[in-house]
Amino acid sequence: MSRSAREISSPAEWSTVVEGTKVCVVLFYSPSNAASLEAIHILEHHSQGLEGRGTVLELAKVNVDEVKAIKSAYSITKLPTTMLFRNGKEVDKVSGDNIPRLTQLIEKVKQAVDSETTKKASGSANSWKGAALPRGYVDITDQVELNRSELLNFDTETGGVRALLSSEKPSALSGGKATAKDWVESDTDDQLLLFMPFQSMLKLHTLQITSLPPTDDDDDEAPMRPKTIKLFVNKSHNLGFDEAEDLQATQDIELSESDWNKEGTASIPLRYVRFQNIDSLVLFVVNGDGDSEKVRIDRLRLIGESGSARDMGKLEKVGDLPGE
Question: What is the pTM (predicted TM-score) of this model?
Answer without folding.
Answer: 0.60
